[in-house]
Amino acid sequence: MKKIEGHLHLVRSVAGLNGKGRMTPLGDGRTIWDDGTVIKLIPDGWGDDNFLAESALKVMSENGIEKAVLLQGSLNGYQNYYSYQAVKKYPNKFVAAFSVDPFADTAMEIVRRHVEDLGFRAIKFEISQGGGLHGYHSPFRLDTNPDIGKIFHFISDYPGFVVTTDYGDSSQYSYEPEVIANLAARYPKLDFVVCHLSFPNANHLDRLENALTQWKDFTNIYTDISAIQDIEGETEFPFPRCQKDVALAKKILGSKRIIWGTDSPWSSTFNSYHDLSTWLEATDIFTTEELEDVLYNNAEKVYFKKENLDAMLESKDPSFKNK
């Protein structure tokens, strides 16, 4: 069965930044935050201090993955330009989103460069308190902050533009599922993808149901199911708690608004990439036709729009070198 990895991170150079400070590579896939926290960021054999496009393609080939969506996050540090280079070098394999700190003095210059010069047609807002912008900024909302409003007003001129958001779990003040519904209503020509199935907890399915129900009537809201094994703390294949979460998502949103992904490389340090890429096929949540949507068709529809791909492939940045 064809598959698109809907949530993948390349790491040209480790540049993590969140509430724990900066991240420094230690080798052997290990890194350390400024507060002393050490994590295994990259699985063995994928890279010591990086996870490059060629390594990703090898992992994808070994696991039958046709294409991948490259996203940015504070854990690895924004890899915007390297993701751009990867798409230009491997145009049949990757599509990419960029990220920006909306509170930076030159935020709108950065947005304009990535959209107008580099041809990006997707943006990732990593706003979680645990791992993103809320860890080092005062609380804000995506639907009312004027700095972020400028960004939305700008990208609304590009129908089909994708806004991907990680807002953390319900214990964090960054958790705001209602904001996604507000934005989807305000910008009906944009597509919205909520990462990690709104951080589910199989012991609290009513909370997940509340979030998903708010999005039910908005056909431009999707969710990816990446990293839910990490969130649920599951290492037992085929992840029974995650099955409950995804079954509820199907019941409320349907199979055409769920995008499979893994959030690798980090997620593949907890469970093997093979398990993360095959677990849905080991369940009876979806019919064969529905599984084709979740594993491939939905990501193809949202992220791999022809006009969006053409915008980046036709971009001409004088500083770009295809290497």
UniProtKB/TrEMBL annotation:
List the InterPro entries. Answer: ACMSD, Amidohydro-rel, Metal_Hydrolase
Domain Amidohydrolase-related: from-to ranges: 5-304
- Transmembrane feature ranges: none
Where in the sequence is the signal peptide annotated?
Answer: none
Answer yes or no on keyword Lyase.
Answer: yes
Query: Which GO MF terms are attached to this record?
Result: carboxy-lyase activity; hydrolase activity
Q: Which UniProt keywords apply?
A: Lyase
Checking Pfam families in the record gives: Amidohydro_2 (PF04909)
Protein's UniProt name: Amidohydrolase
Question: Which species is listed as the source?
Answer: Ligilactobacillus ubinensis
